[in-house]
Specification:
- Helices cover 51% and strands 0% of the residues.
- The chain is mostly helical.
Amino acid sequence: CTIDKWIVGEFNCSCVGISKCAAAYCQADSPNASFFDIPVKDLMEATYLGNLMGQKAAGILDASKTKAPSPAAARIINRIEAVKSAVTMGVLSKEEAGSMMAKLFDV
């Protein structure tokens, strides 16, 4: 069994299969489009799918609250907190902290 990890980078109606909401998308030819422009049948289907995805996402988020971060993530969190504290205490300037954070995340 393999475990795949997914990260949401963008969330819009077409990429998650609820393109039924497209009628509510404002465009040059329909600048006043709204929720009320979605046909009832399409709205019912989109609502069902949206609720299902919301329930799944909430379950994933709730489950992640009880998990401790990995050792690598814990080290990163500790470093971020240390930099934030150093700025609060005046040991580092915001610019110095920004430089350190950029190095931390290799940006």
